[in-house]
Specification:
This protein has 160 residues and is α/β, with parallel strands linked by helices. The chain is 35% helix and 24% strand. The protein has helices at residues 18-28, 38-41, 44-51, 65-71, 88-96, 126-137, 155-159; strands at 6-12, 32-36, 59-63, 81-85, 104-108, 116-119, 122-124, 142-144, 153-154. The strands form 2 sheets. A 7-stranded mixed sheet has the order 3-2-4-1-5-8-9, with helices on both faces. Strands 6-7 form a two-stranded antiparallel ribbon.
Length: 160
């Protein structure tokens, strides 16, 4: 079992859109965007829409959380993987399942009922806060940054 070449893991409730499919993949040098999300894994219409905004030469995979856990260690060395999840809970599930994630970028977590805004593009509820605190306790740096040329903000500071 080899260690997969995970370049970055991003939480974005929109999953793959222009910032992810082009800007981030180009900046990271990713050649594979792995969407780890149970709903997207079973929705071919959503997959086709996301495929339309991914840079040329970049492959996409749409796996459930469990399938990601089961197959990530079989990734080829040449695969430069950019993982995209919808929620912090999804990322924590992957980590607890043995996916070697050592850094988390948050792009967007939209405001909705029961959430409070802690950054212009990030709103959290109690479960989100608890999950981020657990990720931080595991020693995983978590930042908010929409695009690569924007300054990052530490989530631990935003939750303080």
């Amino acid at each position: 079992m080899s260690t997969p070449n995970i370049l970055m893991t991003r939480i974005d409730n929109r999953l793959v859109h222009g910032q992810v499919g082009v800007t981030w993949t180009n900046t990271l040098g990713a050649n594979l965007v792995l969407v780890a999300n149970d709903e997207a894994a079973s929705d071919p219409v959503q997959q086709n829409l996301m495929d339309m905004v991914v840079a040329d030469g970049v492959q996409t995979r749409y796996f459930t959380l469990q399938k990601t856990i089961d197959v990530i260690h079989k990734a080829a060395d040449r695969q430069k993987i950019f993982i995209v999840c919808k929620t912090p809970q999804d990322v924590l599930t992957l980590i607890k399942g043995g996916v070697p994630i050592n850094f988390i970028n948050v792009g967007n977590m939209h405001f909705s009922e029961g959430k409070r805004q802690i950054h212009k593009t990030m709103s959290v509820d109690e479960q989100d806060e608890s999950t981020f605190r657990e990720l931080i306790q595991l020693g995983i740096p978590c930042e908010v940054r929409r695009v690569p040329d924007e300054s990052a903000e530490s989530i631990s500071r935003l939750l303080a």
